[in-house]
Design brief:
The chain has about 180 residues and is an alpha/beta fold. It has helices spanning about 30-35, 45-55, 95-110, 120-125, 160-175; strands spanning about 20-25, 75-80, 115, 135-140, 145-150. It has 5 helices and 5 strands; from the N terminus they run βααβαβαββα.
Length: about 180
Amino acid sequence: MPRPPLPNLPELPDLLAPGLRLVFVGYNPSVPAAKLGHYYAGKQNHFYPMLAMSGLTPRLLTAEEDVLLPSFGIGLTDLCKTPTAQASHLPPGALRAGRAALREKLERCAPAWVCFNGLGLYRAFTGEAPAGYGEQPDRIGSSRVFVAPSTSPANNGLMAEREAAFRLLAEVVKGS
């Protein structure tokens, strides 16, 4: 059931720029991320370990180092900028309302790849179920599209699939 957004939590600014190799898209900022002002700041989130394990970053970064990601060719944004404890707590229509704004941002910065951090997120963006994890047949402007298992701790049962997807993502990004 949707719950109201938490008051007084700032939106996270996009980490986007022209010429990025890869942009990760999340549902929306978590409460810890909004409170700390950094993407994927929940202590149990596997985003930064997956980047390091796959070789997308040269070392394990902390959430506080998210501003370094563009120097590695990686950007970050969300489908919806409203912080909540869970994406299911977003107001009705919030994800649908974010589609056009996200598409415009991604087309403007035109990364080589866009990676959606979760199957449900990709479905929320496109309105259709993805073909599975990995590269999708869709394009966003000139950007190729990839879907990885969410790095949220709620998906820790998919650790093997997550690691395989991030390794494949690193391969395709480095090969393009």
